[in-house]
Amino acid sequence: MNITFFKPSVKPDSTDNNLVGGLVGTIAQNLLMIFIILGFAGYYLLPSAQANNFPTYFSSLVTIYFILFIRQHTAKIFHSLVFLLSALIVLYLASSGLWSSDYEQHDIVSLLGNSALVMCLLLSLQIVKGAVFTGARPLLSAWVLAATVSAAIYLIQSLTLATTDNILLPIGRWNTAAVASIGYGLGLVISCFLISQTQHYQRLFWLICTGLLFFACLKLETGYVWFALICALTILSFGKILQLRESPLVIIWMLVSVLLIAALVLTFDTVLDSNRQLIWHSVMDTIYMTNPAIGKGILTQVSPQVDCGSAASILSNFADCSFKHPHNLFVATTYYGGIVALALLLMLYLTAISVLVESSDINRWLIMSMLGYGAAIFIFDGDQLVGKINFVWLVFWLPIGLTIALELEGKYSDQRQ
Question: Which phi and psi (to 5°) does residue 100 adopt?
Answer without folding.
Answer: -75, 165
